[in-house]
Amino acid sequence: MQEIKEGDKKFYLLDDPKNTDKKLLVEIETKSGRYDGEECLLVLVKDVSHLIKIEKLKGEWEYSQMMVSTLSHEQLTPLTSVLGLS
Fold it and tell me: Is the pTM of the predicted complex or chain greater than 0.70?
């Protein structure tokens, strides 16, 4: 288990009990307060594993867009030089 701190939130990277090859990213946030005059502690636990997948997909999308723009530029450059000669 690996702990990553961010403000009053903590993130834990855990092994997935269903799939040992996969990791789960869990966010745990605590808040204290009063309820019916009693001091209480609220613990919020969220599975944020999908954020890892989203960030990976964003990186892949940016890379593919860079490749498409580079290839488009490389295809247009010879045309521009030929058109410039005429």
Answer: no
